[in-house]
Amino acid sequence: MITLTIDNKKVVVEDGATILAACEMAGSKVPTLCHEKKLLSFGACRICLVEVEGTRTKFTPSCTTPATDGMVVKTMTEALIKARRTILELLLISHPLDCPVCDKAGECSLQDLVYEYGVSGNRFKGIKFTLPVDHISPLIERDLNRCILCGKCVRICDELQGVSEISFVNRGMRTKIGTDFDRPLDCEFCGQCISVCPVGALTSKLFKYKARLWELENIPTICPYCSNGCTLILGIKDNQIKTITSHDDIGINEGNLCAKGRFGYEFVANPLRLKKPLVKRDGKFEEVDWDEALGLVVTKFNEIKTDSGANSIGALGSARLTNEEIYLFQHLIRQGLGTNNIDHGGGYSYQGLIGLKESLDYPASTNSIHEIRETKAILLLRADLNETHPNIKIEVNLAINRHQARLIVADNKRIKLSANVASNLIYKPGTELTLINGLINLLIKNDLINKDFIKEKTTGFDKLLSCVKKYTPEYVEGICEVNPQDLELAARVYAEAEKACIIVTCGMGLCGNNRDIALAASNLALLTGNIGKESSGVYILPEKNNSQGALDMGAVPGFLPGYMPVDKPGYSAFQMLEAGKLKGMFIVGENPVMTYPLPDVQKALESLEFLVVQDMFMTPTAELADVILPVGSFAEKEGTYANLGKRVQKLKKALLCHGETKSDLEIFIDLCQRMGCEITTDNNPLTSFIKEESNPLTSFIKGEFAGEDKPWKNNNWKGKFIPVESDEIKTDRDELLLVSTGSHLYSGSLSAWSPHLLEVKGEACVEVNYKDAKKIGLDAGDPVKISSKNASIKLKARLSDNIPEGVAVVETHPLLNVMVLFGQKMMPIKGKIGKE
Amino acid sequence: MDKLNEIIDKYRETEGALIPILQEAQEAFGYLPKDVLVGIGKGLKLPLSQIYGVVTFYSQFFLTPHGKYTIRACRGTACHVQGAKKIISTIENLINLKEGETSPDLKFTFETVACLGACALSPVMMVNKDYFGKMTPKKITTILSQY
Q: How many Å apart are CA A197 and CA B144, to the nearest integer?
């Protein structure tokens, strides 16, 4: 520890802390422009100068100088004020004073400092820059004339995002921030650069001329997109979201957001949103009032129940609903309609979590998100984080860049994170289990396993041992097409690290074997003793904002809330959608026609006697409904979401209801009452779940939020080795192996209605290797028809050398159902591609 | 591109080898075309934006084709006093190029520099790696006619 004096005040700081950190601790405000807490020190702007007694230099930059014992620091002397004024004058030589039309005005660090230091004139004269403003790049506007070259955007893009889209270009007076060869931005459009820009050089195009910053009411709430659970700050004016920002000290995301979180809010104010309940009469939708619509729902469902039994009714919920809503929905279906036919996410999106429940008795990621950054080795197992969980990618980048973690990427293709890997395992699609069994075989052979842990904390090791015996590196090479050296290196990197974690995504792309992959990952972690300690474990990253909650709250055929098994499990989602199985369905917040891998969903839904769809938009599924109940968006309701670390976070109502919509919760309460299904004060979400701090539903979630220890803290806990194997998929010479991966915009339930996000996404594409393209005779951008035994679809070709030969990657797209190619099994499938 | 891979391989084990690689690549290709920078980026696992930043920082790297002969005229203080302006305008007239331009036949590129470090010989010019001192308009004509 270091003791020093700042402005006559003694402070104690940790070794290695900068003078700036010490000043902050002492409560002395030192101005900064290029400093950013979450980035490495840079020392570009010199505005944070302080005086240190006894040094030869007059001023010392506080953000880059480490504090030393006995230092005596002054932060606000006459000389310092003069120096800072001069620096501001120098910046103002070229910085345009177009504050009246600048979107940053009001939150501009330069404006604030010029005001604070009273810089009114300028002793220096020089030319203002006249660089063209970049209006071409989507979402982000770059006016480099306003840039003060603090380099924060360059550094956040490099250090946290790992994208390095921009850099310092040219030198001297002509230095600017630019892309290579001055092209428009073609990056992930996370907008992190906007969030750190101290001036108005980088601004959001969506916010341009929408409001002055000081007019906005800032309301923090939870992001409705992925399972990371970032806190968004909604900037509200006139009952509309004008912009979304973040704050370093609010929420688990530490101020970091991705493109979806920052720019994906347009769906809320989309004019296509449904405003009134609709009832289909003679094939046409008519607007009706709530009483009529809900009355009809109850009458019809009761009729079907009386005529054909409760088992002929089924319900699909959504992992986008709040915990309270899902709880009440399953209550309504189970108590009100009397059936266990309830599911969500196609019945497959949560199978990874089920896998962990089986092996570790804990149906969620074992460790918290921020522990990733301090781990020593990371195995990304089919986890293209740039696409699916951009903020988890930040954790991985921090681990690599700041904690010397080593990365192993196991995927069907080269992903963006592959650039920094210790070992890159590109395996033949569908052979994940063989690959992991191969790693396990190597660990056992090379004695890289934790024998004490296996003996004391696990069961079933013998079964695993006999299962993996045949998975020698040569055998694995034959099936996975991964060379033995790479496999050996990966095994060593993972097992020799003092703490290592495995990250798997689930519920996205092909997830037919999600449960088995989770089990395989868990086997690997148990084998090396990487369960139950910090910065290790298995992370299962589900797709949606409340994927965890939907499972915890029992929106599944086999479990009640809190994973209590039911006596007679209901139909799974796929079973419900077999034509003729059901007479009535209640679909809430899901769009099976666009997202389920079943080619005949539409037929099945059309064959129903009665279909109720509860959604914000007229989706292709809603078009088939008899009654449509319009609902409020995340910004118009209260409730809680559980993120992938089981952290339960509250939504805040920021907007008034849209038209005559109701929240899902209000609808469920109304229906419960109409169906005579009891809501006591104990389980009335409106009176107790949301309003009170202790939410009774959290007893079903447990984990981090309820302060309950994880099961392995219990001495009697034992992890189960559950061996898993898979069949190989063989392709003929003229066939490709089709694969689908999760994409940046997921299924499109929200993003499809956010036009600017869609613009970034571009058209639906199939990615193939250059060599395969040549064989088929394809050029980049060619329209192609791609077919499997299940279906065929049309999209555009994209050529890439990131895809191995013989494989075609079909990204999910918000406007096209690509999953139909794969059918119920949701595994890689043989297929053909031809020019259309 | 084989040539480029050879250069990159030579430095594969060296930390911070970007600048020598750029220099050798420029030597081999005459300038640094985009494809070469992309290749270097892939080889060194460096983002293209950062390589572009380095290339544009140093005046020794060119992104456009350069003439076979690069003529550099000094406009430093000593040369200026000794009549560099006249020298520069003579060169410009003789090869019909303005400062920073390259002739369409890719024979000459003309540049001016702040100092060539040979003030005793001012006014000075260079053609590729050869120095020519105490220049006069007449001498320039003879020198350039040799190329």
A: 51
Quote ipTM for the complex. 0.89
- Average pLDDT in the B27-36 region? 93
Contact A170 B47 (CB under 8 A): no
pLDDT score for A579: 86
Please say whether the beta carbons of A612 and A586 come within 8 A: yes
**A748 contacts: CB under 8 Å, gap ≥ 6:** A594, A595, A813, A814, A815
pLDDT computed for residue A698 by the predictor: 59
Rg (CA), chain B: 18
* In contact, A541 and A227? CB cutoff 8 Å: yes
Please name the amino acid found at residue B105.
D
pTM of the model: 0.92
Q: Taking CB atoms and an 8 Å cut-off, how many pairs form between chains A and B?
A: 38
**Gap between the Cα atoms of A20 and A65, Å rounded:** 8
* B87 part of contact set with chain A, CB < 8 Å: no
How high is the pLDDT of residue A735?
Answer: 85
Report the b/e string of A277-288 with b at 16+ CB within 10 A: bbbeeeeebeeb
Closest CA to A535 of A371, A395, A380, A378: A371
Chain A residues touching B48 at Cβ < 8 A: 180
Nearest chain A alpha carbon to B61: A170
pLDDT in tens, A250-287: 999 999 999 999 999 999 999 999 999 999 999 999 99
List chain A residues with CB under 8 Å of B63: 181
Residues in chain B: 147
Are A158 and B47 an interchain contact pair (Cβ–Cβ within 8 Å)?
Answer: yes
**Out of B34, B45, B52, whose CB is closest to A167?**
B52
**Structure tokens of A49?**
């100068």
Chain B, nearest residue to A181 by Cα: B52
**pLDDT at site A664:** 95
Residues of A with CB under 8 A from a CB of B: 158, 163-171, 178-181, 419-420
Reported as a single tens digit per residue, the pLDDT across A449-507 is 999 999 999 999 999 999 999 999 999 999 999 999 999 999 999 999 999 999 999 98
Cβ contact A732:A498 at 8 Å: no
Domains of chain A: 2-76 (3.10.20.740), 125-269 (3.30.70.20), 278-347+546-696 (3.40.50.740), 351-541 (3.40.228.10), 736-835 (2.40.40.20)
The one-character DSSP state at A683 is: T
- pLDDT tens for each residue of A401-422: 999 999 999 999 999 998 889 9
Q: Do B47 and A420 touch (CB under 8 A)?
A: no
Decide if A484 contacts A445 (C-beta within 8 A): no
Instruction: Please choose, from the candidates A667, A634, A665, the residue with its C-alpha nearest in 3D space to the C-alpha of residue A651.
Output: A634
**Which of the residues in chain A have pLDDT under 70?**
680-708, 744-747
Residue with the two structure tokens 């039911």: A566
Nearest CA to A465 out of A456, A453, A454, A481 is that of: A454
Where would I find the H helices in A695-779? 698-701, 703-706, 755-761, 770-776
For B130-143, how does the pLDDT look when each residue is reduced to its tens digit (9 = 90+)? Answer: 999 999 988 998 88
Minimal CA–CA distance to A342: which of A363, A318, A322? A318
Residues B82, B76 contacting (CB under 8 angstroms): no
Q: Quick check: B50 pLDDT over 80?
A: yes
Q: Residues B2-6: what's their mean pLDDT?
A: 90
Residue among A553, A524, A153 at smallest CA distance from A333: A553
B56 contact A CB<8A: yes
* CB burial of residue A135 (10 Å; 0-12, 13-18, 19+): exposed
Fill in the DSSP letter of residue A427: P
Contact, A537 vs A366, CB < 8 A? yes
* Angle (deg, nearest 10), helices A484-496 and A432-445: 70
